[in-house]
Design a protein that fits this description.
246 residues, alpha+beta, eight-stranded antiparallel sheet
Length: 246
Protein backbone atom coordinates (compact mmCIF):
# COMPACT_ATOMS: atom_id res chain seq x y z
CA UNK A 1 0.00 0.00 0.00
CA UNK A 2 1.36 3.40 -0.95
CA UNK A 3 1.79 5.86 1.89
CA UNK A 4 0.21 9.29 1.81
CA UNK A 5 2.36 12.32 1.11
CA UNK A 6 2.21 13.53 4.73
CA UNK A 7 3.07 10.09 6.14
CA UNK A 8 6.00 9.79 3.76
CA UNK A 9 7.30 13.18 4.93
CA UNK A 10 7.17 12.07 8.57
CA UNK A 11 9.15 8.90 7.82
CA UNK A 12 11.62 10.79 5.68
CA UNK A 13 12.32 13.59 8.14
CA UNK A 14 12.66 11.23 11.09
CA UNK A 15 15.95 9.96 9.65
CA UNK A 16 19.19 11.85 10.45
CA UNK A 17 20.50 14.15 7.73
CA UNK A 18 24.17 13.24 8.13
CA UNK A 19 25.93 11.84 5.10
CA UNK A 20 26.93 8.60 6.85
CA UNK A 21 23.27 7.73 7.64
CA UNK A 22 21.40 8.86 4.53
CA UNK A 23 17.86 7.59 4.02
CA UNK A 24 17.88 4.52 1.81
CA UNK A 25 15.83 6.14 -0.97
CA UNK A 26 17.57 9.53 -0.97
CA UNK A 27 19.58 10.90 -3.87
CA UNK A 28 22.97 10.63 -2.18
CA UNK A 29 22.30 7.07 -1.05
CA UNK A 30 21.42 6.11 -4.64
CA UNK A 31 24.49 7.94 -5.94
CA UNK A 32 26.72 5.56 -4.00
CA UNK A 33 25.42 2.68 -6.11
CA UNK A 34 27.05 4.01 -9.27
CA UNK A 35 30.19 2.24 -10.55
CA UNK A 36 33.43 3.31 -8.97
CA UNK A 37 34.63 6.70 -10.14
CA UNK A 38 31.37 7.69 -11.86
CA UNK A 39 30.22 9.95 -9.01
CA UNK A 40 33.23 12.20 -9.66
CA UNK A 41 31.89 12.85 -13.18
CA UNK A 42 28.33 13.61 -12.03
CA UNK A 43 26.77 16.50 -13.94
CA UNK A 44 23.06 16.25 -13.22
CA UNK A 45 20.42 14.56 -11.05
CA UNK A 46 16.75 14.27 -12.03
CA UNK A 47 13.65 12.71 -10.47
CA UNK A 48 9.91 12.95 -11.06
CA UNK A 49 6.71 12.35 -9.08
CA UNK A 50 8.29 12.24 -5.65
CA UNK A 51 5.84 11.84 -2.76
CA UNK A 52 8.22 13.11 -1.53
CA UNK A 53 10.63 10.24 -2.36
CA UNK A 54 10.63 9.39 -6.09
CA UNK A 55 10.60 5.84 -7.36
CA UNK A 56 13.55 6.45 -9.71
CA UNK A 57 16.67 8.61 -9.60
CA UNK A 58 18.39 9.61 -12.86
CA UNK A 59 22.12 10.34 -12.68
CA UNK A 60 23.68 11.89 -15.79
CA UNK A 61 27.48 11.79 -15.83
CA UNK A 62 30.02 13.13 -18.29
CA UNK A 63 31.52 10.37 -20.43
CA UNK A 64 34.63 11.55 -22.31
CA UNK A 65 34.45 8.46 -24.57
CA UNK A 66 30.92 9.19 -25.80
CA UNK A 67 30.40 11.59 -28.69
CA UNK A 68 27.71 13.50 -26.80
CA UNK A 69 29.58 13.20 -23.51
CA UNK A 70 26.42 11.77 -21.92
CA UNK A 71 25.92 8.62 -19.87
CA UNK A 72 22.86 7.99 -17.71
CA UNK A 73 22.30 5.65 -14.78
CA UNK A 74 18.84 4.92 -13.40
CA UNK A 75 18.51 3.72 -9.80
CA UNK A 76 15.29 2.25 -8.40
CA UNK A 77 14.70 0.14 -5.31
CA UNK A 78 18.35 0.31 -4.31
CA UNK A 79 19.74 -1.13 -7.58
CA UNK A 80 20.84 0.20 -10.96
CA UNK A 81 18.05 -0.66 -13.40
CA UNK A 82 19.45 1.09 -16.50
CA UNK A 83 22.80 2.26 -17.91
CA UNK A 84 22.74 3.99 -21.32
CA UNK A 85 24.43 6.58 -23.52
CA UNK A 86 21.31 8.72 -23.99
CA UNK A 87 19.18 10.75 -21.62
CA UNK A 88 15.90 12.58 -21.91
CA UNK A 89 17.30 15.28 -19.62
CA UNK A 90 20.52 16.19 -21.46
CA UNK A 91 21.53 15.94 -25.12
CA UNK A 92 25.21 16.61 -24.54
CA UNK A 93 27.62 17.32 -21.67
CA UNK A 94 31.00 18.97 -21.33
CA UNK A 95 33.66 18.82 -18.66
CA UNK A 96 32.50 22.26 -17.46
CA UNK A 97 29.10 20.76 -16.60
CA UNK A 98 30.52 18.31 -14.06
CA UNK A 99 29.39 18.91 -10.47
CA UNK A 100 31.05 15.98 -8.74
CA UNK A 101 29.53 14.01 -5.89
CA UNK A 102 31.87 15.51 -3.29
CA UNK A 103 30.33 18.96 -3.83
CA UNK A 104 26.91 17.76 -2.68
CA UNK A 105 26.48 18.40 1.04
CA UNK A 106 22.67 18.70 1.04
CA UNK A 107 20.60 15.59 0.40
CA UNK A 108 17.25 15.37 -1.35
CA UNK A 109 15.35 14.75 1.89
CA UNK A 110 16.52 18.09 3.29
CA UNK A 111 15.50 19.84 0.07
CA UNK A 112 12.06 18.22 0.32
CA UNK A 113 11.70 19.36 3.93
CA UNK A 114 12.45 22.96 3.00
CA UNK A 115 9.90 22.82 0.18
CA UNK A 116 7.24 21.47 2.52
CA UNK A 117 7.96 24.25 5.04
CA UNK A 118 7.37 26.86 2.34
CA UNK A 119 4.19 25.09 1.26
CA UNK A 120 2.85 25.16 4.82
CA UNK A 121 3.75 28.83 5.21
CA UNK A 122 1.73 29.61 2.06
CA UNK A 123 -1.18 27.30 3.00
CA UNK A 124 -0.94 25.09 -0.09
CA UNK A 125 -1.23 21.32 -0.33
CA UNK A 126 1.67 19.67 -2.15
CA UNK A 127 1.00 16.21 -3.59
CA UNK A 128 4.21 15.64 -5.58
CA UNK A 129 7.71 17.02 -6.03
CA UNK A 130 10.14 17.09 -8.92
CA UNK A 131 13.89 17.24 -8.30
CA UNK A 132 16.68 18.61 -10.43
CA UNK A 133 20.31 19.23 -9.51
CA UNK A 134 22.86 20.91 -11.76
CA UNK A 135 24.94 24.03 -12.13
CA UNK A 136 24.46 26.81 -14.66
CA UNK A 137 27.94 27.72 -15.85
CA UNK A 138 31.43 26.47 -15.18
CA UNK A 139 31.98 28.71 -12.16
CA UNK A 140 28.44 28.39 -10.78
CA UNK A 141 27.59 26.49 -7.61
CA UNK A 142 25.33 23.43 -7.88
CA UNK A 143 21.69 24.03 -6.94
CA UNK A 144 18.75 21.85 -6.07
CA UNK A 145 15.60 22.87 -7.94
CA UNK A 146 12.51 21.46 -6.20
CA UNK A 147 9.17 21.97 -7.98
CA UNK A 148 6.01 21.46 -5.92
CA UNK A 149 2.84 20.22 -7.66
CA UNK A 150 -0.78 20.25 -6.52
CA UNK A 151 -3.51 17.64 -6.88
CA UNK A 152 -4.26 18.78 -10.43
CA UNK A 153 -0.61 18.43 -11.42
CA UNK A 154 -0.10 22.17 -11.72
CA UNK A 155 2.95 23.87 -10.33
CA UNK A 156 2.43 25.57 -6.96
CA UNK A 157 5.92 26.90 -6.36
CA UNK A 158 9.62 26.26 -6.91
CA UNK A 159 12.64 26.46 -4.63
CA UNK A 160 16.29 26.92 -5.56
CA UNK A 161 18.51 25.54 -2.78
CA UNK A 162 22.28 25.60 -2.50
CA UNK A 163 23.55 22.02 -2.68
CA UNK A 164 26.60 23.00 -0.65
CA UNK A 165 25.12 25.01 2.22
CA UNK A 166 21.38 24.30 2.15
CA UNK A 167 20.39 27.98 1.93
CA UNK A 168 17.31 28.94 -0.09
CA UNK A 169 18.42 31.07 -3.04
CA UNK A 170 14.91 31.82 -4.34
CA UNK A 171 11.31 30.69 -3.77
CA UNK A 172 9.22 31.34 -6.87
CA UNK A 173 5.48 31.02 -6.30
CA UNK A 174 5.84 31.05 -2.50
CA UNK A 175 5.32 34.63 -1.36
CA UNK A 176 5.52 33.91 2.37
CA UNK A 177 8.59 32.54 4.06
CA UNK A 178 8.38 30.05 6.93
CA UNK A 179 9.16 31.44 10.39
CA UNK A 180 12.72 30.96 11.61
CA UNK A 181 13.30 28.07 14.01
CA UNK A 182 12.65 28.91 17.63
CA UNK A 183 15.75 29.27 19.81
CA UNK A 184 16.32 26.48 22.31
CA UNK A 185 14.45 26.96 25.56
CA UNK A 186 16.50 27.95 28.59
CA UNK A 187 15.64 25.94 31.70
CA UNK A 188 14.35 28.12 34.58
CA UNK A 189 15.97 27.20 37.91
CA UNK A 190 13.61 25.75 40.53
CA UNK A 191 13.29 28.26 43.40
CA UNK A 192 13.04 25.42 45.94
CA UNK A 193 16.23 23.83 44.70
CA UNK A 194 17.86 27.24 44.67
CA UNK A 195 17.08 27.65 48.41
CA UNK A 196 18.56 24.26 49.17
CA UNK A 197 21.82 25.14 47.61
CA UNK A 198 24.40 26.63 49.97
CA UNK A 199 25.00 30.30 49.55
CA UNK A 200 28.11 31.15 47.72
CA UNK A 201 30.85 32.35 50.00
CA UNK A 202 32.80 35.23 48.65
CA UNK A 203 36.49 34.59 48.85
CA UNK A 204 38.28 37.86 49.33
CA UNK A 205 41.89 38.24 48.34
CA UNK A 206 44.34 38.06 51.16
CA UNK A 207 45.22 41.49 52.54
CA UNK A 208 48.83 42.51 52.49
CA UNK A 209 50.08 42.47 56.12
CA UNK A 210 50.95 45.89 57.50
CA UNK A 211 54.45 45.96 59.04
CA UNK A 212 54.34 46.53 62.83
CA UNK A 213 57.16 48.30 64.66
CA UNK A 214 58.67 46.07 67.35
CA UNK A 215 60.01 47.82 70.43
CA UNK A 216 63.54 46.76 71.21
CA UNK A 217 64.49 47.23 74.89
CA UNK A 218 67.40 49.58 75.43
CA UNK A 219 69.56 49.26 78.53
CA UNK A 220 69.58 52.46 80.64
CA UNK A 221 72.81 54.48 80.70
CA UNK A 222 75.05 53.72 83.60
CA UNK A 223 74.82 56.28 86.47
CA UNK A 224 78.19 57.94 86.86
CA UNK A 225 79.87 57.17 90.16
CA UNK A 226 80.46 60.10 92.53
CA UNK A 227 83.87 61.61 92.33
CA UNK A 228 86.05 60.26 95.07
CA UNK A 229 87.29 62.76 97.61
CA UNK A 230 90.94 63.31 98.27
CA UNK A 231 92.85 61.34 100.79
CA UNK A 232 92.69 64.12 103.42
CA UNK A 233 88.91 64.33 103.14
CA UNK A 234 88.57 60.64 103.55
CA UNK A 235 90.78 60.74 106.65
CA UNK A 236 89.35 63.78 108.37
CA UNK A 237 85.91 63.89 106.84
CA UNK A 238 86.34 67.42 105.50
CA UNK A 239 88.40 69.27 103.06
CA UNK A 240 91.71 70.62 104.16
CA UNK A 241 91.60 74.30 104.78
CA UNK A 242 94.24 76.59 103.58
CA UNK A 243 95.62 78.75 106.39
CA UNK A 244 94.96 82.41 105.97
CA UNK A 245 97.70 84.58 104.82
CA UNK A 246 99.39 86.83 107.39
Amino acid sequence: MRLSFSASLLLLFAAPLRAETEPANSALAALKLLPRGEAKRLARIEARDGTPVPERWYFIVHDPKAESGVHEYVVAGGVIVASRDVSQFAENLRVEDVVGGDALKVNSDRAAKLAQQYALANDVNVTAMQYELKKDGAAAAPLWRVTCLGEDGKELGRLLISAGKGTVVSHEGFAAEPPPPAPPAVATPNPVEKLRQPAAVAILPKATPIPVAIAIPVEPAATPLPKKSGLINRLFGHKARTPPAE
